[in-house]
């Protein structure tokens, strides 16, 4: 159903702190023109934690509207209370999205059985496909391959975004899950390697500012053109790493502003703008990437 180069889209704000829908439309057009295969709207990179429920739903709706059927939109969801995650699905079910990307509960550190029951409840509340999202560095909980395998048996749980950077898991997931279960890397620095090991693509932060290169690289890798993919990845590697010099999406929003993709790089507290100390790292990465 999905594969390739998928952007974990940033959410642009005005200088007054409101969602900037004009810039959002501009970003959607940029990704369509650049060959991006799908958009994740209001995932964690989209600052879902600081948007109100009403804003969250509206941003997804507007992203679907702006895409006008030209690119699939995946809605980011997730909560540390299962009933809230189920409610998000209810609110977003009729927006025209193609799938959900549902991050693991954060802070309360559920057991593996708790994770299974959490996602089972979400899946029972919707017919829309669900992609699991494991990012223990941000949530404090790690969904083990055995739990992913159990969840993969649920009909509308179709894939996993794994942001552990642990390449050994690609083979484990591929071995333990059905052959049609989709495996996406959520770690740009190891994304190409994960495809070579059997992954289906990358849900990417780098894609926000290097969309055409990411699409070309991922498509080359999926087609077995590793020489071309390796060359692009090597050029982008400083960017893959530099965009995490401070908490994401701080660096990528600063970079997107510098490249003219959004009107400003504003974030909502408790996130703050990229520090003066970190700016040369990101600027040098942009130069190295030749974007």
Describe the structure.
With 291 residues, the protein is α/β, with parallel strands linked by helices. The chain has one domain: Aldolase class I (TIM Barrel). Helix content is 45%, strand content 13%. An 8-stranded parallel beta barrel has the order 1-2-3-4-5-6-7-8, surrounded by 5 helices. Helix 1 (21-34) packs parallel to helix 9 (211-222), helix 8 packs antiparallel against helix 10 (226-242) and helix 10 runs antiparallel to helix 12 (279-289). The mean pLDDT is 97.
Write the layout of secondary structure elements.
Elements: E1 4-8, H1 21-34, E2 38-41, H2 53-67, E3 73-77, H3 82-92, E4 99-103, H4 112-124, E5 130-134, H5 136-139, H6 145-151, E6 157-162, H7 168-176, E7 182-185, H8 188-196, E8 201-204, H9 211-222, H10 226-242, H11 250-258, H12 279-289
Parallel strand pairs: 1-2, 1-8, 2-3, 3-4, 4-5, 5-6, 6-7, 7-8
Q: CATH homologous superfamily - what is it?
A: Aldolase class I
The proportion of strand residues reads 5-15%
The largest sheet has its strands arranged as 1-2-3-4-5-6-7-8
* Succession of helices and strands: EHEHEHEHEHHEHEHEHHHH
The assigned structural class equals alpha/beta
Apparent shape: globular
Largest sheet: 8 strands, parallel, barrel
Rg calculated over all Cα atoms:
18 Å
The tally of structural domains comes to: 1
Q: Within the CATH hierarchy, at the fold level, what is the topology?
A: TIM Barrel
Number of strands: 8
Mean of residue pLDDT values: 97
CATH class: Alpha Beta
Cα-to-Cα separation, first versus last residue: 30 Å
* Second CATH tier, the architecture: Alpha-Beta Barrel
Give the % helix.
40-55%
Contiguous runs where pLDDT drops below 50 for at least 5 residues:
none
> How many helices?
12
